[in-house]
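FIELD: query
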Amino acid sequence: MKKNLLSSLIASTVLFSLQALALPAPDSESVAAEKVVQTNEATEKKADTPAKPLLLTSKESFEKSNAIRTAIKEKNQAAAKAITGPRLWYAGFGLEGSSKAFAGDVKLTADRLKALYPDLISYVAYNDQTVEQMQVPLATLTGIENTTFEIGKLANPQDFAVIMMSSHGNEHILGLKLDGEYYGPITDNYLEINLRKLKQMPTLIIISACHSGSMIPRLKAENRIILTAAAADKVSYGCQPLSENTFFIDALMGKAPDPSMSLNQLFVKLKEDIAAREQKEKLAPSEPQMFVGEKMKKFADLPISAWLKSPG
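FIELD: result
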């Protein structure tokens, strides 16, 4: 009996020792806290990895662009009906997404024209944007074609149009780039065919691109004034990726144009300003060009505040 009692005592002592040495089981609060820490770490790690933006050439991007474009079209149709008398139409296209300057050019020109003519009917499109922040349509071939068609369809003979394009260029062509891939080029022949949709409407064409003067022979017409950033065999400047505007549009629109000056006067000043800047920065002359059609000669001498008044 004493032997059995001693055995029981030893067994109890061993069991007690093992229980004392055992690690305590974690309570539910500790488990929950650990899960929170793990979740936060995973969230922070995910936040450190930026979401890959959707390609501008994706189906969703084009659908979003088309929806915005349709809304602008409807808004402009209503605006055109509400305005009595001559109307000023503007269509600006920043054709390449490789530089902020091209989008900056079309936006700045729209702002300056709007300041001169609050009733401006405006179409703006450019390719320096992301899908998440898209507020204007993409500048595409279809967009150019539809815009010139809509303006030509809605415009009256006494209306006036400003068509502006900013991009990289070469002789007789302009680049059109989305997501680093070219969707062009846009030739002077293509532009001329599309500008026919404006019919005999008085039109100012502004092209900011290298070699843009090479497009004048194909685009010139008696009802058009054409301003280009460079001569046919010259390059223009200010199209680096982070530039706000090209030299040409900065000189033309950077400071609010004096409304008492004519296009002829503004162009003379523009050439002087650009030449001085190029000389200061030791750049080869770009030699901006101006063409004035026969029916637009009197118009080119009008103060820009009187664009919608008949030259007489």
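FIELD: remark
The two ends are 135 Å apart (CA to CA).
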